[in-house]
Every structure is written in structure tokens, then in C-alpha cells.
Design brief:
Elements (H helix, E strand, L loop, with lengths): L15 H9 L7 E7 L8 E2 L5 E4 L4 E7 L8 E7 L7 E12 L6 E5 L16 E4 L2 E3 L2 E3 L1 E5 L5 E5 L11 E8 L4 E8 L5 E8 L10 E6 L21 E14 L7
Antiparallel strand pairs: 1-17, 2-5, 3-4, 4-17, 5-16, 6-13, 6-17, 7-8, 7-16, 8-11, 9-10, 11-12, 13-14, 14-15
Length: 261
């Protein structure tokens, strides 16, 4: 069953099985309502501005996303999303992801966004809000950060550790936000085995706004870094790209207000 519960990891190996049961169980003492769900067995009709890079793979029943650092359009660009009714408060976002190719300085952003579809503040978008994972490659190697920008206007980023996953392998991810503790978490396991890969947590978010209704992919434009606007930036390869496949996306909200122990 694609939707079977999977174990997750904590920071310490000795407590990983306990954290797995507490954080990955679909019940966890809470009744959930499904806001959105797709296994990509049929076309999800996600909205995109780059259909050559973001599209439903009908043969394999997955969604394909390629982000290229250099791009011609104004912000926002490079997106693929479906509208959901988040409404604010605690939530649980589950998905399977296969980061097939991650070049240096490139990554793919998947999560919940406001209408700006922006990852960070920029000219014309001074205060975006979002929560997303960003598999990519940088100087330290492969990384899977959890990014959150909540109502306090602070951009948070925590990642599971360097080089804990591989390109071309399927993983199961769970992103949760708990309104009571104002904390978000990411847990990542191998899809085929359920073995833990890593976890990350972000705290002191200041709450999340109720309008994170854009579920899918977004990516900030190169802006002044890359042509045709700019001539490049240090530590940023304008020709780099990142590709990931996604399957079994499900967004749930607890029937009660907060997650319970």
C-alpha cells in the first residue's frame, strides 16, 4: 500500500524507533481530514508556467519537475502547483520524492506557498510565506533542508545532514507543522525499506498564515544574478539544473486544533 506508515529517524540512533512511531504514524492520537491527495495515476492538472520542465509523466504515473537556475521571466517563475484549502493551523504533508539529478547550486523546492510563489524576499515581494523542502547540491554535497518563513518574517532553514540520500532513489517524506508548539519538522525514510534517513526541525516560526494554498513546486528567479538581467553571482552556476520525480502527495489537517502527544 502506497500510504503505509513508515518509520522515521531522530538525531540519536537510540531514540529513532520511538520518534518514528510518534512522528510518522498517520493517527498519532489525532483524527485527520484529507485536504488533497493524488497518486498521479491520472493527470493532476497542476498549473505551471514551464510545461516543458514541470509535467505529469503519464507512463510512470509520477510528476516530473526540473528547475533551471537561469530563466527568462520575471518573478514568480518556474512553478507547478495545485490550489488547496489549507486554512491555517497544524498540518501534515506526505509525499514520495526521487531526486534524480542535482547539479551544484541547483535544487527543487516542494511544499506550501502563498500566492507570491516565492522562496525568499525580493524586489516586489518583500514578505513571502512558505514551508518547503529543497533537495539540492552545494559545497557540502547533497542536502535536504526544511525551509520555513512564517508570520514573524524570519527565514528559517534546517537540514537533515549532508549526503544522507542518493540521486535516483525513492524516499518518503513527511513535513508537519504543530501550531501549539509553533514547530515544523521533516522526516525522511527510504521508500522501499522504510529505513530512516534523517530528520530536521524548525522552531519559533511565529505561526503560519492561512493562505498557504499553493501546493507544489516553486523556485525564485535568478533575478539580477543570471542573464538576461545580470552577469552572474559568486557561488551560483547559472547553467545548473535540478530534477526530481514526485509521487503520492497527500495533505492532511487534524480534526482537532493541534497535534497531541
Amino acid at each position: 500500500n502506497k500510504w503505509d506508515a513508515r518509520t522515521s529517524s531522530g538525531v540519536l540512533a537510540l531514540v529513532a524507533p520511538v520518534l518514528a512511531l510518534l512522528m510518522q504514524s498517520p493517527v498519532f492520537g489525532v483524527d485527520y481530514a484529507t485536504v488533497y491527495e493524488t497518486s498521479f495515476s491520472v493527470d493532476p492538472n497542476w498549473v505551471t508556467d514551464q510545461p516543458a520542465n514541470y509535467y505529469w509523466d503519464s507512463v510512470n504515473g509520477v510528476y516530473h519537475a526540473t528547475t533551471v537556475n537561469a530563466q527568462p521571466g520575471a518573478s514568480p517563475t518556474r512553478y507547478a502547483y495545485t490550489l488547496v484549502n489549507y486554512g491555517g493551523g497544524s498540518f501534515r504533508l506526505e509525499f514520495d520524492i526521487n531526486p534524480t539529478s542535482l547539479e551544484w547550486s541547483a535544487g527543487v523546492a516542494l511544499g506550501l506557498f502563498d500566492a507570491s510563489l516565492a522562496l525568499s524576499p525580493s524586489t516586489g515581494i518583500p514578505n513571502p510565506h512558505n514551508i518547503f523542502v529543497h533537495p539540492g547540491r552545494s559545497d557540502g554535497g547533497l542536502s535536504m533542508p526544511l525551509y520555513v518563513r512564517g508570520l514573524n518574517g524570519v527565514s528559517h532553514a534546517e537540514h537533515i545532514g549532508w549526503n544522507l540520500f542518493s540521486e535516483g532513489v525513492w524516499y518518503h517524506c513527511v513535513v508537519q507543522y504543530d501550531q501549539a508548539s509553533d514547530a515544523a519538522s521533516l522526516t525522511m525514510t527510504e521508500r522501499s525499506t522504510g529505513n530512516p534517513v534523517g530528520s530536521a526541525q524548525v522552531t519559533n516560526i511565529g505561526g503560519l498564515p492561512p493562505d498557504l494554498d499553493y501546493l507544489g513546486f516553486a523556485r525564485d528567479p535568478a533575478g539580477e544574478c543570471c542573464p538576461p538581467v545580470g552577469g552572474g553571482c559568486s557561488g551560483y552556476d547559472c547553467g545548473a539544473s535540478a530534477t526530481a520525480l514526485v509521487d503520492n502527495v497527500r495533505l492532511l489537517i487534524p480534526v482537532c486544533d493541534d497535534f497531541e502527544d
